[in-house]
Specification:
Strand content: 15-25%
Strand order of the largest sheet: 4-3-5-12-6
Order of helices and strands: HHHEEHEHEEHEEHEHEHEHEEH
CATH topology of the largest domain: D-Maltodextrin-Binding Protein, domain 2
CATH superfamily of the largest domain: Periplasmic binding protein-like II
Radius of gyration: 27 Å
CATH class of the largest domain: Alpha Beta
Length: 289
């Protein structure tokens, strides 16, 4: 049998400690000032220790109260996150996946019909994330190739999906220009891509001015418009390469790491996630992989 304090009193204590005021706590909890004060008094009597002391016209946590509040706050945060996840999953069962807008539009969404035919019981909910930062969207999986801005724990648990191969691409007419006169089209948040390319190939694909854009699809559109040379993963421009709208004069080279799936920290991977990862690995594989 658990030996727990009165939970309604603990809730009142947490609201007072967080807001710094019985009045504000009462407003938040939709209770009267007197009711919240009684809850606090009950908790202090139950614990046998004062949790607050007067500080001018307000209240201040005692040392014991501060220690207790740290544990209560952590427990409430964990409970709140678990309840939000429970509600979200009950409303929209399936798998929440975050990835770049360009990967979603140019590869993932066009291929989802194949996944759904194999797994009609799973529905994918998509969120857009960027290479600049891993946003806390509550996603079950985040798909990315550049994990340089991710926490070490996320990089360690990342799951390999497929190699990535990048090429310096431009229009056929632009490819006839000398490298010294070609503008470099760069992604604002993956600037290391061009450094990797030059270190691997030693090729001076573009030595002119640099044009920077915040999204890969904008870099692709800039290249299609004849503004310069963009560095793009080959899967994202397969149609443009096939149609001859873009060419890759120096070919495509593999980058370190490859495309990876980063599972949500602190959560067990579900069977739906495992099924999606297995499908991605098969669907992303090709003759060059």
């Amino acid at each position: 049998m658990r030996q727990l304090p009165p939970l309604s009193a603990v809730r009142a204590f947490e609201a007072i400690a967080r807001s710094g005021s019985v009045t504000r706590a009462a407003e938040e909890l939709c209770r009267s000032h007197g009711a919240v004060s009684r809850h606090l008094r009950l908790l202090q009597e139950h614990a046998g220790v004062a949790l607050f002391e007067k500080d001018g016209t307000g209240l201040r946590l005692t040392q014991g109260g501060a220690t207790f509040y740290a544990s209560v706050r952590a427990a409430f945060d964990q409970l709140e996150n678990a309840y939000e996840r429970l509600a979200r999953e009950s409303q929209a069962p399936g798998l929440h996946v975050a990835c770049s807008a360009t990967f979603a539009m140019r590869w993932l969404v066009p291929n989802l019909a194949v996944f759904y035919r194999k797994h009609p019981e799973i529905r994918i909910r998509l969120s857009m994330t960027s290479a600049r930062e891993m946003r806390n969207e509550g996603a079950d999986l985040i798909l990315a190739w550049d994990l340089s801005g991710y926490a070490e724990t996320d990089r360690r648990q990342a799951l390999a999906l497929a190699p990535v191969r990048f090429g310096a691409v431009c229009t056929p007419a632009y490819a006839r220009r000398k490298p010294a006169t070609r503008a470099r089209i760069a992604h604002e948040y993956t600037s290391s891509a061009w450094n990797q390319w030059e270190a691997i190939t030693g090729q001076p694909a573009a030595q002119g001015d640099t044009l920077a854009f915040p999204h890969t699809h904008l870099c692709i559109e800039a290249a299609l418009s004849g503004l310069g040379v963009a560095l793009v993963e080959r899967r994202l421009i397969s149609r443009e390469l096939q149609d001859g709208q873009l060419v890759a004069p120096y070919g495509f080279v593999p980058f370190d790491g490859g495309l990876r799936a980063v599972p949500a920290a602190g959560r067990a991977r579900t069977a739906h996630a495992d099924a999606f990862i297995a499908w991605l690995r098969g669907a992303l594989a090709g003759p060059e992989d």
